[in-house]
Amino acid sequence: MEKPFSLKGEIALITGGGSGLGLGIAACFVKAGARVVLVGRRAEVLKVAAKKLGRAATVEAHDITQLDQAEDLIQRVNKRVGPVSILVNNAGIHLKKLAVDTTSTEFNSVLQTHVVAAFALTRAVLPGMIKRKHGNVLFTASMAALFGVPYVTAYSAAKSAYLGIVRSLATEVSQHGVRVNAIAPGWIESDMMRNALDNDPARKAKILGRTPMNRFGKADDIGWAATYLCSPAGQFVTGVVLPVDGGASIGF
Q1: 246 or 200: which leads in pLDDT
Q2: Which of the following is catalytic: 151, 155, 162, 228?
């Protein structure tokens, strides 16, 4: 294995790829040699992101909650770019509310975006991967799937569902050369996180206090972990949920 961490020849479809963790994953994939397809609802945001990434990136404006269009999206990408060999289910929405104030409609909306839409895309991409006996499906999970976090019951339920999907799906498709894994990011630097924590020093101190590395992560930290999981170096890794959190999930 001359280049165990290379993604040369891979075509990665990344939902929510225009910003945040999705863009961080895309940037690392491109550096590793992959071509990336950034998927999201905001075409202009995707175009700006693709310009930063260079010629290896293309965009597909698409709303993943349009479940009946999942197969059409995969077919368009297959024709425009080539067969999708990596699917990163990263898109999602956040809801910060007490459980008693969360309506069933709001709860269902979070599940539809994170879980049902991700499943629809996964189901659409799997036949081709199985036929080619090669593929990776990666889910962006969360610390909220590993321990209790207040005010995010719907989000926690959605991210926890990923863990079951990863483990069950891996038992079905790994024999066909398709690996299924997840990353559980810790607290990663972003404009949104800075805006939230700069005005809440007590919460910031609490997070850092339970993080053994005593710092926040960067989008690249998630991107390189994703690269490893989808590369030949991770060829015997399937069905795992990898925390990339500076030790927060084991900190005291």
Answers
A1: 246
A2: 155
